[in-house]
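Q: Could you write out the predicted structure for this multi-component system? I'm mainly interested in how the pieces pack against one another.
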Amino acid sequence: MCVRQCAFKGHSYDPETDEVISKEELCVGCHRCVTLCPTNALTVRQNPLDFRPNGNWTPWAIRNIFKQAETGGVLLTGMGNDRPYPVYWDHLLLNASQVTNPSIDPLREPMELRTYLGRKPKKLELDYTQETLKLKTPLPPQLKLETPILFSAMSYGAISYNACESLARAAEKLGTYYNTGEGGLHPNLYKYGKNTIVQVASGRFGVHKEYLDTAAAIEIKIGQGAKPGIGGHLPGEKVVEDISKTRMIPKGTDALSPAPQHDIYSIEDLRMLIFALKEATRYTKPISVKIAAVHNSPAIASGMVRAGADIIALDGFRGGTGASPMVIRDNVGIPIEFALASVDQRLREEGIRHQASIIVAGGFRNSADVSKAIALGADAVYIGTASLIAMGCHVCQKCYTGKCNWGIATQDPYLEKRLNPDIATERLVNLINAWSHEIKEMLGGMGINAIESLRGNRLALRGIGLTDTELEILGVLPAGR
Amino acid sequence: MKRIFVKEEFCMGCRLCEIHCIVEHSKSKDIIKAFKIEKPRALPRIMVEEKGSISFALQCRHCEEPYCLEACMSGALYRDEKTGAILHHKEQCVGCWMCVMVCPYGVIQRDLNGRKVALKCDLCAGREIPACVANCPNQALEYREG
Amino acid sequence: MRRPIKPWFEKEISGCSLTGFINEDGRRVNGEAIIQSIGLMNERSNGLGGGFAGYGIYPEMKDFYAFHIMYEDAQAKEEAEKVLNEFLLIEIQEKIPTRKTKGIPHPPLLMRYFLKVDENRLYDLEISEDDYIVHIVMKINSQIKGAYIFSSGKNMGAFKAVGFPDEVGRFYRLEEYQGYTWIAHGRFPTNTPGWWGGAHPFTLLDFAVVHNGEISSYGINKRYLEMFGYQCTLKTDTEVMAYLFDLLLRRHQLPIEVACKALAPPTWEEIEHKGEEMEWVKALRIIYGSVLVNGPFAILLSHKNGLIGLNDRIKLRPLVAARKGNTLYIASEEAGIREICSSPDKVWAPKAGEPTIGWLKEDRQNEFESPRTRISDREKPQSVYSVPGVC
């Protein structure tokens, strides 16, 4: 069975000796064989081939040079930044209410996670001429979420059709949204349109009238956290018939999105595109703009809001991807914690925070990370890698080969079958429900019964093990104050 | 009556159903012993048919109008009154293999390990859910009315 | 007055007592009654803060802004007066009359000023008189070390100190003032020591707020207000209440009931259940999400035309209201009301999130600039808007 299940041909059966032999060098650590072995006979260990200990020339650095010397190519990898940079979520702690303020029990009292994303007016205008109060000017279009968690942009092509379908169904069940990524939308998934955010990326793959009409919101992708500054990458092996039709490109060709959007060379061009989309959809859908978290994110975000974006999506450097050059993934971009804190603060200072909602993404691992992000100022959180893990991914980082043993990041029909959308949808729903419940418990512990009171409430956080500057940028007090 | 149905789009050809069928029909019901110690090894009543990327698991359909029952000379094949399943009495079978030839699905096998009798799925009498259905990792097998 | 040395964003918590009443016919009474009412509830405070606000107390100077300012030292006074002289016309400046009271040692310098705004200045700056005053108050409170303006309205004044509230009342000689609305507060701060500026009520222009509870959403309420230019300098969470009401009522010109619904909105479920008629509540909650005040609270908001009592969405703090004749009483405890009104016509407990509103019945010429202070009955200023519980 392990022989059949390993797409990397790590195991093979030798009928002569009646044995299964393993080629260790081909193992990628995806645990497929381990999980399915009926006798639990397998396990995976790191290959104990030791180099001499060297603080600078780590085995990883040495092996990368071997690979490049052999092939002369750019090193590709999948998923998010795995380098040991500090994870700032682990340096933030949440509060709980005691004595002076009663904590609230989420099992017995209403606890509200409802979130609305979109542009909001500065004040309420009411019409007093009628018997009952009426709104004078209607609100700009909003996305309604039952929980502040959405599924991040993962393109059809990078992940399989079954995976896309699972995300769509889970989003519908949970009352939240999923993002198509830059791969276009498969016609069979149009029926989930009202839970879909479609993406218009630099390659404009799959962008046509029905695509825009069917969606609940449109996202202009300027960049993504895993590879800021360059475009998306889908290796040719993964461009099969269906992908080619959906993306509107020839079969078998590498789908390399251009680095910039070639009609957005400056902020005023972005404004043009935003309003072009708004006109095309008759101002009925919010327009979101996604950027990677880079050094001058606050200034960029401020510009974007003034250019007309209703939602800003910030992707931190831990964001995942199907394929990206390793150097860019590991070295470009900044942690989402700082980007979020500074963007939120900057928008407030300019008095325009209400004009756009902020969604953050990039390596959120659990509901505590989500709560801390909301406390720093985010309106909602996109989860990418976490949702893939819920569907079965073991983060082996080989998505770019198209040989995902779990049926997620592959277009090979033999492998794709392994992902049963019924099972995957249920697992995604379970994950989000579990996280939502945990968030409710944390809110209740803080004596809050609506998530609006946590959003941007930096006083709910304390920092631990952070320098003064980091505390200042994050806008939180050190633990103990 | 309740039968086993396969969802072809989810069967990945892993053959865990075959393995668990063997375990269920072994003497020890323990996977290591069933494979390593018991000789002869029990045979699976379920087979995975595979071609290219298409695969699905097939076993006795427990037909409403079973050809095998009619063809059986010795009356070894009979329908269980409670579950409606077609069961096979090993001792009564004479090994003529008419059932093997007449089955339109080809799901009856020749039991070459012993008295050369016939072998087919018995819906795991005694279990609430058949072993193959319970152990399919991708929920490709369903046990339901139909 | 010793202001504790703490980083500016730490907040004090308000466990306490409050009481207030309004004579809707404009009849003015002296401060004796309110002192007695709050004095009865001394158990609820710990002697580290008490305060009062009275309306109609300066009838001869009713067109002047009455600033009550406390100074830590002479230098603060000098600097603040420089600012006042530069931006305003000072008509009278004098010490606030006080008497030596046992429970109130070491008072700071307490001064009051009656001020007018030079109209020519306003014309140049193109802002309203009230906004001008707000700017000056924010400026002095945040920039001048040791000076705190704790009252800035016309024909009203706030009086606060560290001590038991009845002692504070005696200290300020409140029996010598006559007002038609009085509110009072006794404090139980859990951070030590209390400081004079931290006592309630918190005021801005003629809004005064007293508060019992803790605002869990203080962090975001504060940041939201900062976007509109308010500075939260008095290190107590109640401050945001006063500023939120100023923002919603005066600047955004929302009626009282709408503003209260923004602070203590119903749940989404309830809103959806009511459908069409609650469409505006849904929009209100979406727009003013950061205004939602979470955490237990019971507040009294007073302004020159009325008195409002409000509880949080799930009523975690006590509040009782009563009526006798033309007077509306609201307090933390019924005993506090019965102390000064032994047989009210009606006594009830207001519901969670529903405001209890009392209005001055006389013709209102100097309202907020808004023509719609109440949702209905604008042409009939005599009747009180009917909310559940108010007859």
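A: Regarding packing and overall arrangement: Chain C touches chain A through 47 residues (CB under 8 Å).
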